[in-house]
Amino acid sequence: MKSIRRSAAMGAIVTATAGLLAGSGVWATAANASTTFLGSLTANKLVASTVPGNGDLNPYGVAVVPRSTGDLVQGDVLVSNFNNSNNEEGTGTTIVQVNPSTDAVTQFAGISDPGCPGGVGLTTALVALRNGWVIVGSLPSTDGLPDGLDGPGCLIVLDSHGNVRETFAGDGINGPWDMTALDLGDVTELFVTNVLNGIVPPPAGSTTDSTASQGTVLRILITSAPNVLPRRLLTTKIGSGFAESTDPTALIIGPTGVGLGPNGTLYVADTLNNRIAAIPGAVLRLSDDGTGQTVSEGGDLMGELGLAIAPNGDILTVNGGNGNIVEVTPQGRQVANEEIDLSTPGGNGGDLFGLAVSLNGRAVYYVNDGNNMLYKLS
C-alpha cells in the first residue's frame, strides 16, 4: 500500500509541475515582470512585538497563513521563536500569530515534544499549509551554546489549533534550519536545509568553532490532507556539501533560506559563502546536486539568511552581515540600487532572519531579532 500511495502522490506532483512549467496552477501569481519588486516598496512599518507571554525571544521563522481553518486566519503571520526568556539560543518553544490589519498578537502554539531528539528550539524552518497543518523545525541546545547541541532535532507537525500531532525525525533530518514547501493540498513537498551534519559540539568554554562542509537539502514528501494525520512518505537528498559552523553568538551558521522558483528550481542561501545556489528540477529530482549551481556570489550578498521568491520570480534575501534585503534575478543579476537597509538604529546585520511575501504579493514580512519585532515592507 505504501508504494501505491507514493505513486499517487508523485503523480500529483508531476501534474502540478506541468502546470508550474506552463505558468498556471499553483504558480499563477508568478510572472516575468520587467520591473523590480523591491523598487515598488516604499513603506517600512513596525507591525507588532513577537514576544509571547512566556517571554520567548529571537524571532526566526515567518509564514503567512494561506487559508482560514481552526485558529488560523488567512493572511495572518506566524512567527517562531528560537530563544527562551533568558535569551538562550535553541530553547524557544513558541509560535505567535499576528494579524497585520489590527496588529493583534496571540500565541498560536507553546510546544513540548518528547518525540523530538534533543528537545525543542524552534528555527527558521516554518511553513503553514492550506489544509491547516503547520510544520516547524527544531534545532535544540540544552544551554543556549554550541556545547549544548546534543540532538539532531526534528520537524514538528501542528494542527490548526497549535497542538503537536506528529514528529518527523531521522532519515537525514539533522539540524533543520529553514524550509519551504510545495503545497498541493493532499500531498506536500517540504524542502529542508540541515546544518548539523559533521558538526561536533565544542567543549564548554572552547573558543574554537566546529566546522564542516556537510550541510544538506532534503526534499520530504508528506501527506497533508485535512483532518488526516500527515505521514512521511519519501525523503530524497537533493543537495549536500554546504558549509556549516558553530558560532558563539549565532549558535550555528549554515545554509539558511530556501525558496522554490516558478520553474521548479530551488534557491538556497549558502550563508557562509555569500552565495545563492540553485538546484534545478528540485520538485522531481532523484539525485543529489551537491552545492548546486552558483546563481550569484559576493557583491551585495553578505552572509544572507532568510530567502523568499518575489511575485516576479526574483530572489529576495536578507543579509546577516549588514541588515540589507537584496533582490537577485534568476539569471544572477543583483538588481542595482534596490538593496534596502532594514537594520534598526543601534542594531546589526545579524538581526534579520525569516521573511515571507504577503498573499497579495505586494509586501514582505520580516522579523528583527534585535528588538523582537515583526515588520512589513510595502
Q: Give the beta-strand count.
A: 25
Question: How far apart are the termini?
Answer: 48 Å
The largest beta-sheet arranges its strands as 10-11-12-13-14
| Share of helical residues | under 10%
Name the overall outline. globular
**Percent of residues in beta strands?**
35-45%
Mean pLDDT: 91
Radius of gyration: 19 Å
Topology order in helix (H) and strand (E) letters:
HEEEEEEEEEEEEEEEEEEEEEEEEE
The largest β sheet comes out as:
5 strands, antiparallel
Q: Which structural class best describes the helix and strand composition?
A: mainly beta
Low-pLDDT parts are 18-33
- The number of helical runs is 1
Structural commentary:
- With about 375 residues, this protein is mainly beta.
- About 5% of the residues lie in helices and about 40% in strands.
- The protein has 1 helix and 25 strands.
- The chain has one helix spanning about 1-20; strands at about 45-50, 55-65, 75-85, 95-100, 105-110, 120-130, 135-140, 155-160, 165-170, 175-185, 185-195, 210-225, 230-245, 250-255, 260, 265-270, 275-280, 295, 305-310, 315-320, 325-330, 340, 350-355, 365-370, 375.
- The strands form 6 sheets. A 5-stranded antiparallel β-sheet has the order 10-11-12-13-14. A 4-stranded antiparallel β-sheet has the order 1-25-24-23, with no helix packed on it.
- A hairpin with a 4-residue loop joins strand 16 and strand 17 (about 275-280).
- It is globular, with a radius of gyration of 19 Å.
- The termini are far apart.
- Residues about 20-35 have low confidence and may be disordered.
